[in-house]
Inverse folding.
């Protein structure tokens, strides 16, 4: 078998990828304004399921862009998610990416309370006096805790990106976020997602600015 | 709709997830010895395609474990992949994770040569006097360059994890690695993969030790 490489210049690879995705999506319906996010998730995963499983609250894209413009910080539930976000671009608007998962106090509180570190991380974030975008790609427990904090009136996030991946309470944790009335969200319904997807949704928003 | 959370203790979540994956795999054939890797890829992505698309060269798992035991380093093509690998566990065997993608000299050489930074990173890695496991989850250009270096006798890696994701030359770059006769590889055939998959294959190996 002869293996032939397509001759695409380095700077053109992403553009060409998005053309292929657009082509293969054909007339799949995407919510107007969300296309760059959906396509970047497909770009990140080569998984066209994201054309169907991504749920957007009303007007969430504009709200999220405003939050970033106003200096919102992004809180992730993995170092990997943090690593994947374009921090230079975010810094242009005064934001930064925070991840508390490796913090000693978080480990201690989680142990004391018998929770996951992700839960303790969310509590630490909720105590910040900042506009916050949560980008949750791993821990359903983080998402459940965010839901509780929001329901209790202890947290009003600018946006919840709810895309944990997996098999235990992942589906349910996302449904909890989808049930919130006044919280802007972007959620990958079902089992799929990941830190890479959380990061790429943040980047899609940053590149829309 | 009532959303009911499954009552699983934090420490049990991963175990329960692997049980569900095993259950749903049913009698899907997996190559003996590769099960922990395949299942961890599914765990990381909630995508059962990995039960079929992962290709293993003959005896690769034992070779990879030996390489780690002998202090091999892991070279990634993204900071995100580096972030996702259990560096503490790797350090127990004397290894470390290296990623040259943000290095200034790599950016300069890439610019000078009109290549991607990923290509320049692979060249920098090839010049190391170390046993190397390459964990490539993003850049097909990195994989193509590795293929060339191996063909030219300039590089003898312990293992090539070839799991870039995407649409331009991704499929082809993986087929090049699959065509190598004497190079241990783990490759996700087709378009799928990612830095998360690259990291999780490394972790699956580490957890088998």
């Amino acid at each position: 078998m002869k293996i032939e490489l397509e001759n695409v210049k380095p700077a053109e690879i992403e553009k060409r990828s998005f053309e292929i995705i657009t082509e293969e999506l054909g007339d799949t319906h995407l919510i107007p304004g969300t296309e760059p996010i959906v396509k970047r998730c497909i770009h990140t995963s080569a998984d066209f399921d994201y054309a169907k499983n991504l749920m957007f609250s009303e007007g969430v894209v504009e709200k999220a862009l405003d939050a970033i413009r106003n200096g919102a910080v992004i809180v992730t539930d993995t170092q990997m998610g943090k690593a994947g976000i374009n921090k230079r671009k975010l810094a242009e608007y005064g934001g930064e990416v925070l991840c508390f998962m490796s913090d000693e106090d978080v480990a201690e509180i989680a142990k004391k309370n018998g929770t996951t570190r992700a839960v303790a991380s969310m509590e630490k974030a909720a105590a910040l006096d900042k506009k916050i975008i949560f980008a949750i790609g791993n821990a359903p427990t983080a998402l459940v805790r965010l839901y509780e904090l929001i329901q209790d009136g202890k947290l009003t996030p600018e946006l919840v990106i709810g895309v944990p991946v997996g098999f235990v309470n992942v589906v349910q944790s996302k449904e909890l976020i989808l049930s919130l009335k006044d919280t802007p969200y972007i959620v990958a319904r079902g089992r799929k997602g990941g830190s890479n997807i959380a990061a790429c949704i943040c980047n899609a928003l940053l590149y829309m600015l």
